[in-house]
């Protein structure tokens, strides 16, 4: 998988890949997890058609493969999907990488933290890396705030306060991880 292909994966595709890395699954099982009432659906809901498109794309990229076919009395044969070695490496790398933009914390970072929690993986390194990435952004926004006026000031204030709140969240999460 090339770096461009990796960057082009959607959050839904990363989610599907990471769930398959936990254990081989069929699309229906993934859909239950990512449904509104599912354990991951409370963070990021993914409709069934998107899950099946993600599975097709991940297979084309060589990140997953069909492990076996399962007969069922509740409909058509289900394909059990497993991650390839390159899929497992890509998922592990993605889970360890901080999100690039503060606007993606609500979606991508929370998804990563939930996935790490599902596997019992300590999130400390990700939290510290995310903090390290966000501090210079917050500092730059603080500097911009001092010089801004009009609506530019309103926007700079919004971005600064959002970044500051995210940093407080990361600090609290780091303290919680150390305390457990």
Task: Quickly describe the structure.
The chain has 180 residues and is mainly alpha-helical. It is 66% helix and 7% strand. A two-stranded antiparallel sheet has the order 1-2.
Key features?
180 residues; mainly alpha; two-stranded antiparallel sheet; elongated
Question: What does this 3D model show about the protein?
Answer:
The protein has 180 residues and is mainly alpha-helical. The chain has helices at residues 3-8, 11-22, 27-34, 48-60, 85-96, 105-118, 124-147, 150-179; strands at 64-70, 78-83. It has a two-stranded antiparallel sheet with strand order 1-2. The mean pLDDT is 92.
Write the layout of secondary structure elements.
Elements: H1 3-8, H2 11-22, H3 27-34, H4 48-60, E1 64-70, E2 78-83, H5 85-96, H6 105-118, H7 124-147, H8 150-179
Antiparallel strand pairs: 1-2
Spatial shape: elongated
Strand content: 5-15%
Number of helices: 8
Could you state the order of secondary-structure elements as H and E? HHHHEEHHHH
**Radius of gyration (Å):** 19 Å
**Helix content bin:** 55-70%
User: Structural class of the helices, strands and pairings?
Assistant: mainly alpha
How many β-strand stretches?
Answer: 2
First-residue to last-residue Cα separation: 37 Å
